[in-house]
Design brief:
Layout lengths: L30 H12 L1 H16 L3 H25 L6 H9 L1 H38 L2 H4 L5 H19 L4 H31 L21 H15 L4 H4 L10 H28 L11 H5 L1 H46 L9 E2 L7 H21 L3 H27 L8 H29 L9 E2 L2 E2 H23 L25 E2 L3
Parallel strand pairs: 1-4
Antiparallel strand pairs: 2-3
Helix pairs in contact: 1-8, 1-11, 1-13, 2-9, 2-13, 2-15, 3-9, 3-11, 3-15, 3-16, 4-5, 4-15, 5-7, 5-13, 5-14, 5-15, 5-17, 7-13, 7-14, 8-11, 8-13, 9-15, 9-16, 13-14, 15-16, 15-17, 16-17
């Protein structure tokens, strides 16, 4: 089901292909391709399906306002990534840049947050893909039995594991063919989403809606009608919806113009999805409303699968199958693209001895970190199997937890950017805005949301309502896994102290040369 690199042959890498310092292929990804890969990681169709329930449960009709509020810190943090990438493109991204600016321990924890967040979302994406796979087959065969198989926990877990294995294998076959196929997959899902939104808006404008709502500009105002806790939880879901735009930043060493392409691609992707989400949010709310009965977005059915609930009422039976296919395609595209940042972050951590050197290995033919991709697939599968058995609504819990992790490592990267460029704060008006003001504001916003969200996650009613010893499962999946990272960091320090002593990746300021990583270990396994 997932696309493999059929254009590659099992021959040694050609001499005319340059290698980066970590063994990655260079001069492969342009601005548009980087933006497409980032949008594939964001996966608008999947993300909307998975996140709308969490946001509506927290803020109701204020969903458009929260989408804008979530965009602001992510957009501001994007400039930190852009400035870092322009000076020192590195596949380690948050890990490498934070370690150089704020020291090895902060860098390691930023790297852990970025890797584990991707690993968890891989399982989440695969689970949604498994559900929609059976919905698509069921609609095509007119079998309600097959359509419902995705709701069977054991079948869902087994199919999710197959999706992860297939995606991990496909992501290990090189980047070039994946890039070409993503144009088709991303284009298809965006086209169908815009078609769905257009039909829903047309029905809303004509008054042909179950909600009976009238359009209101107050939907876009985050300053009224919300408690601080509701705002924070809604914002977590909103932040999650933009997550993935930084995939292009992890491909800096593989870009055609490493200094400019990653930043441009990241900004293009995040602006594209902002417009898409706002259009979808208004269409969904105006048509279905946020009530908890019928097809209302606050109801049980829509909260678990918004497109599964609204596809047929909005688009009819033929359109329903088309939308289901769009979500399935979205998960396939996202799975393949989302493996990229996780595997490359682990590659960088291995190259600078923050992880065992085995993680620094790259495949000699495909020039990708195959070992890191395999580890990501195995850990993602294990985490999903465990959490699915603990929670009836594991997707809600993991999305809330992911928001905590995203705020963590994006916030660290934003502050790292401010400190790294401190000698250039006032070199020009541009430097003041992009190297000081924007990343500082973005980091501060993300820090506040992180603190409030951790506090709220302690409550069992947050997310699905699952809890362990009276503490919400979201806390264990979010802050608890970050704390586990601190323990693993100390273990790694005991085994390989060089990185933590600043020998492999010393602290630096803007203008300092980038240290050479350990030589890549070429592995065909």
């Amino acid at each position: 089901m997932l696309v493999q690199n059929t254009s590659e042959t099992a021959e040694p890498a050609q001499d005319d292909t340059a290698f980066g310092g970590k063994g990655l292929a260079t001069d492969k990804v342009g601005t548009l391709a980087g933006a497409v890969l980032s949008i594939a990681s964001i996966a608008p169709a999947y993300t909307t399906t998975a996140s709308v329930g969490l946001i509506v449960a927290a803020v109701g009709l204020k969903m458009p306002a929260l989408l804008i509020a979530g965009f602001v810190p992510m957009f501001l943090a994007a400039f930190a990534y852009r400035e870092f990438s322009a000076e020192t493109p590195d596949c380690g991204a948050s890990f490498t840049w934070s370690a150089r600016s704020l020291g090895p321990y902060v860098g390691w924890m930023a790297g852990w947050g970025s890797v584990i967040a991707v690993v968890i979302v891989l399982a989440n994406i695969a689970a949604v893909g498994a559900e929609f796979l059976y919905l698509v087959i069921g609609r095509m065969t007119h079998s309600e039995y097959i359509a419902a198989l995705g709701d069977n926990k054991l079948i869902n877990i087994a199919t999710t594991l197959v999706f992860l294995a297939a995606a991990g294998w496909a992501a290990s076959r090189g980047i070039s063919s994946s890039e070409r196929v993503q144009y088709v997959l991303v284009g298809f899902q965006l086209t169908v989403l815009l078609l769905f939104a257009g039909i829903a808006l047309a029905k809303a404008l004509s008054g042909d809606t179950p909600s009976g709502l009238s359009f209101s500009l107050d939907w876009f105002n985050p300053l009224t009608g919300l408690t601080l806790g509701a705002f924070a939880i809604g914002l977590i879901g909103s932040v999650f919806m933009y997550w993935g735009w930084d995939t292009a930043l992890t491909l800096g060493e593989e870009c055609k113009d490493p200094q400019r392409t990653p930043g441009r691609a990241g900004l293009l992707s995040i602006l594209t999805v902002l417009g898409t989400y706002l259009l979808l949010a208004v269409a969904l709310m105006w048509y279905a409303g946020v009530g908890d009965t019928g097809i209302g977005l606050g109801g049980e059915k829509a909260r678990n699968n918004v497109f599964g609930t609204l596809a047929e009422p909005v688009m009819g039976s033929a359109g329903e199958l088309l939308l289901f296919l769009a979500v399935l395609v979205s998960t396939i595209a996202s799975l393949q693209a989302t493996f990229l940042p996780a595997a490359r972050a682990m590659l960088a951590m291995g190259a600078f001895k923050a992880l065992p050197e085995r993680f620094a290995s790259v495949h000699p033919v495909y020039q990708v970190p195959r070992f890191g991709a395999a580890v990501a697939a195995v850990v993602a599968g294990g985490l999903y199997a465990i959490t699915a058995l603990l929670s009836e609504h594991v997707l809600l819990d993991t999305i809330a937890a992911l928001g905590i992790m995203i705020c963590w490592y994006y916030g660290i990267t934003a502050f790292a950017s401010v400190w790294y460029f401190r000698k250039r704060w006032f070199a020009s008006a541009r430097d003041t805005v992009f190297k000081l003001v924007f990343p500082l504001l973005g980091g501060a916003m993300l820090l506040v949301v992180f603190a409030i969200s951790v506090r709220e996650s302690l409550k069992p009613e947050v997310g699905s309502g699952a809890s362990i010893l009276g503490i919400g499962l979201v806390f264990y999946l979010g802050f608890g896994i970050l704390a586990l990272g601190a323990v693993l960091m100390l273990i790694q320090r005991w085994h390989q102290p060089d990185y933590f002593q600043g020998k492999t990746l010393p602290r630096a300021v803007s203008g300092d040369p980038m240290p050479e990583p350990v030589a890549p270990h070429l592995s065909g396994h």
